[in-house]
Amino acid sequence: MASMMLGILLIIVPLPLFAEAQTSGNLTLGSSLTANDRNSSWLSPSGEFAFGFREMGRGAHLLAIWFEKIEDKTIVWSANGGTLAPEGSTVRLTADNGLVLADPKGRELWSSRLTGTGVAYAAMLNTGNFILASTNHINLWDTFSQPTDTILPTQQLGQGSIVNARYSEMNYSAGRFHLILQTDGNLVLYATPNPRLSSDAYWATGTTSTPGIGFRLIFNQSGQVYLTNRTGTVLNLVTSDTVPTSEFYQRAILEYDGVFRQYVHPKTANSSSRWGMGWSMVSSPIPSNICTSIERDSGTGACGFNSYCTLGDDKIQRSRCQCPPGYTLLDSTNEMNGCRQDFVSQSCDGSRPEKDQFALRDMLNTDWPQLDYEVIVQQTEDQCREACLADCFCAVAVFKGGSCWKKKIPLLNGRKDASEGGKALIKVRKDNFTSTSTGNGQKKNKNSTLVIIGSVLLSSSVFLNLLLLVIGYLVYKSFRSRDSKFSRLVQINQATGTQTFAYQELQQATDGFKEELGRGAFGTVYKGVLGSVDTNFVAVKVLMTRTGESEKEFEREVSAIGQTNHKNLVQLLGFCNEGQHRLLVYEFMSKGSLADFLFGSSRPSWYKRVEIACGVARGLTYLHDDCTRHIIHCDIKPQNILLDGTLAAKISDFGLAKLLMANQTRTTTGVRGTRGYLAPEWFRNMPISGKVDVYSFGILLLELICCRKNYELEAETEAQVVLVDWVYDCYHDGNIIVLVESDEEASSDMRRVRRFVTTALWCIQEDPALRPTMKKITQMLEGAVEVSVPPDPSSFISAI
Questions:
Q1: Annotated catalytic residue, options 635, 653, 693, 749
Q2: What pLDDT does 447 receive?
Q3: What kind of architecture, by CATH, is found in domain 441-587?
Q4: Separation CA 542–CA 522 (nearest Å)
Q5: Residue 423 is inside which H or E element, if any?
Q6: Quick check: 295 pLDDT over 50?
Q7: Of 263, 531, 551, 597, which one is least surrounded by beta carbons within 10 A?
Q8: Which class in CATH covers the domain with range 594-781?
Q9: 403 forms bridges with which residues in the sheet?
Q10: 3-state secondary structure of 453
Q11: CA 755 to centroid of chain Cα atoms
Q12: Are 32 and 91 in contact, with CB atoms under 8 Å apart?
């Protein structure tokens, strides 16, 4: 039935094997473009497609074809992804080789490499195909026959055609994944450039037949992608949804995560129109789950070595590559490159047993299949744990179905999915764990007092027992009375594992509170050194007054951050609660605050600002979603983001934080936070949620993008005084590059700049319900989900 329906459709919408070359606007021999003019391109007659140079980095250009009328100029074909052209390079139309790309010194970087001569002209067609044609209008070469990662409506691929995924989101060189229409008629996805066996495939149509029978992959004008044989009989519908090209732009792409997806975008009358939606998916992704589709005994799988793959919860279901506990990304800008250990592996030297120095971290529904060097059956989980800890080669043990599967480095083909079942036990060094509680002396003393009293009562005469009981009761009552006002803090201390310091100890550590690092509304922060090691620096926050508000701030800060453990949160090491003295002891952040880093005399690197933005987003995601008691920070601003020696961002200052119960999403409270970063609902007597942090993060993100404060009276023009208003005006006018025009790194990364700006505008929507969650925002920043166009806000309240 499907074949008959599609056969009828093919009659209505015929697809010739070769598009007729257009004669209007043809490019003559000698025509050229130079890679130094942003507007240097050849347009199709409709103006919908452009062929020319796209700047991909500082002085590096990609010869490409893109959708001209879409804001982000989505690229659909590229020539020199593996060898970007330097500034001043040219592409020229010649009679012998067709298109020739040469650097400023005339050295050839790429050419269309025609087998014969006779090129008369070239043309950029309305279909998105760039052709080289002879005098009698026969196509000698075209981009439709030389696909990179994308195919377009009316495009047809013959046997032996290969579609290569790019290396990463912004790197257009060939990546690990390939779509091949084999000579036997099978359309196959491979995760290796040179597949040796059919088992290397992770998806296939299964349409195999006698070699040479003739097969063709077609993307028709109704949005269907399908396989036919030589006679035109439909053999397999790759994607079945239909969307007319008269109303939508379409593309099908093998993306850098190894998934083949089809997208649409609504058309518009002119290039300055704002889009009502971004790329949205038409068809189900192929394969439906890339994480579980690749099962090979070599190679990295969907993600890199020592990482694991998990699907996103959005409709595109883009895979995420993440590191297990004890591991970090090799490249923070490309999560698909794999992870490395953060600790020294267990020694196999028999003279240095290290079993007691390691522990196992649990991960449910996680596995690295095809990588087992030993399987032990009929095991309990405890036996499996013991076996891995005792084996110096064991990096991970997977306990599933009563068996223990041992694996060693490097870990391959990792995935986390409900279908996996079982439990992965990740071996890490114990000193990578958060230290356990050391400050429970008061409780021990209290219990000891009761034990002594009980012992005396049991070993003495009745009269003496009664006398001692009365004395003991009075002593105990006095002790409880003296300690009652601190009881909550003692409980906090026991629950969070923070250390209790004596005031004198911290006074000595700071050399009499000599070196001030900064001060706020409730106290001053000083630099200190713990112990005899002069590199063991800490930051000691001294609460200056003992008002009711400062006591609450002290309790909030200890409760909030003491129970957290995340690399993007400043670690609370302990506190002092002695008489009138209340102090908090934090890890020392050697590079100071983000405010100093961002608003100083020199402009920070764009890529470092990208890492900081993603780090803060991850930290907030942890506070909102992953803590036992969800935490609203309430005061996100550059002054409360601190930087360590590697400029990694960590959220600090939880004095205004609001803790929520496990089943609570909103709460009511008085206004908290800092002018310029406050969400509108603070002033409307509305319940507040984590969306107030989302709003503050949006302002912070705009400051990171533009490298300026959110309110500057000394701005060049009146329109630039309020950052939010200026950004939105530039966004509305399609002139985002103005925001970073003096920043060469950012200007060469405009795709990411646009994504960050659009994400920020979603964050600062006036209606909290329209703002995404921090988890979604993190995915938007990292490119894991597409960022649609935000609705027009009625107003932005940025300088309240």
A1: 635
A2: 42
A3: 2-Layer Sandwich (3.30)
A4: 8
A5: strand 423-429
A6: yes
A7: 531
A8: mainly alpha
A9: 400
A10: helix
A11: 12
A12: yes
